[in-house]
Amino acid sequence: MKLGGERRRVVVAWALYDWANSAFATVVMAGIFPILFQDYWSADASPAQANLRLGWANGLASAVIVLIAPLAGAMADRAGRRKQALLGFALPAAALTAALAWVPAGASLPAATLFTLAVIGFMAANLFYDALLVGIAPPARWHAISGLGFGVGYLGGGLVYLLCIVAIMHPAMLGFGSATDAALAAFIVTGVWWALFSLPLAFLVPEPARERAGAAGLAGGLRQLRATFAHLRAYRPVWLFLLAYFLYIDGVGTTIRMAVAYGRSLGFAQTDLMLALLITQFVGFPAALLMGVVGARLGPRRGILMGLTLYIGIALWGAFIEAAWEFYAIAALVGVAQGGVQALSRSFYAGLIPAARAGEFFGFYNVLGKSAALIGPPLFGALGVWLGDVRYSMLALIAVFLAGALILTRIDPKEDPTR
């Protein structure tokens, strides 16, 4: 089924938001902020203590999303204000991102506060971004359009990150006084990029039909939440999968957010860590396509288990890493595992849920996915402090990946679409 010209513009405008906000995920959450937080804003602390601070910031943001997202999403659905809600979270978060450039050295608390609030805005906006998909094209096109957004996001985030790395490695060429000045300016670039490429969605993507607002919307949202939980209890494979997903996707999120900070704690150069993340970014998209083929042939559950096994191997290797080339190799492996696990989790879940309630069930799935890294980052940081060596932090990743994989294997094979 081909899309007409007007519908095609709407789809492109929707996908461009992934291009916009992936700059934040790559530059801020995964790349430059963790390095500056340790070297510039937490210079008074040990590497393990800095990781603990960053872990708590990430965990707090995820906890807030867990608390507010289900009700906010239900209210936005019923009131027909998904786009308004998206922009209401995204634009302030973009401004907070840019404001990081003016936080002075040693001010770890203000830096962590701005970061936490920006991450909350990022994750909350993504909930409404996903929900807008159902209104921009016929159901037969949803998977392809979702894949378009996924790919555009990898490319957009990678492009901004590459530009920032060039500026940091060659600051004088672009008029900066130092690499630190260039790194701080990257937050302004990211915030402006995020806001600028949100505009096509703001002007071209239609708002869903309004159902209720005000107090009625709140009451309706609460009723919808109660109904969702009741339906989840009736489908054992679904809630069992969601429990497994909550654990292992937390490990995926922790790897994304804490890998650069961990590498910096071990003494690797900033440029090595930034280049490693760039490798992950550009390996992730083709790896997701390849793992889709694997999932089609072997079944999505087996594909996810393969990815989680790879993640456990990565964590074990990471605990003993010594050389920069090892960090590059691990970055490539993370790209393979990350794209595959994320892509196959969605298709596996789609085969478990009742088709008539797909929107309702996927809403809950998205809440868990966007609140990833609730447990992992604080535990990652705490283990390094408690046990006296940041390398022990890798035990946190092994724990959540292993727990998620074990629960995944307990789904009733008769109801498992991989069998």
From TrEMBL:
Keyword Membrane, does the record have it?
yes
Please report the stretch or stretches of sequence annotated as the Major facilitator superfamily (MFS) profile domain.
Answer: 11-416
Record-annotated membrane-spanning stretches:
12-36, 56-74, 86-105, 111-136, 148-170, 182-205, 238-262, 274-296, 303-321, 327-349, 361-386, 392-411
Q: Which SUPFAM superfamilies match?
A: MFS general substrate transporter (SSF103473)
Q: Which PROSITE patterns match?
A: MFS, SUGAR_TRANSPORT_1
Q: Which InterPro entries match?
A: Atg22-like, ATG22/LtaA_families, MFS_dom, MFS_trans_sf, Sugar_transporter_CS
Q: Which residues form the signal peptide?
A: none
What molecular function terms (GO) are annotated for this protein?
Answer: transmembrane transporter activity
Record-linked PANTHER family: AUTOPHAGY-RELATED PROTEIN 22
Protein name, UniProt field:
MFS transporter
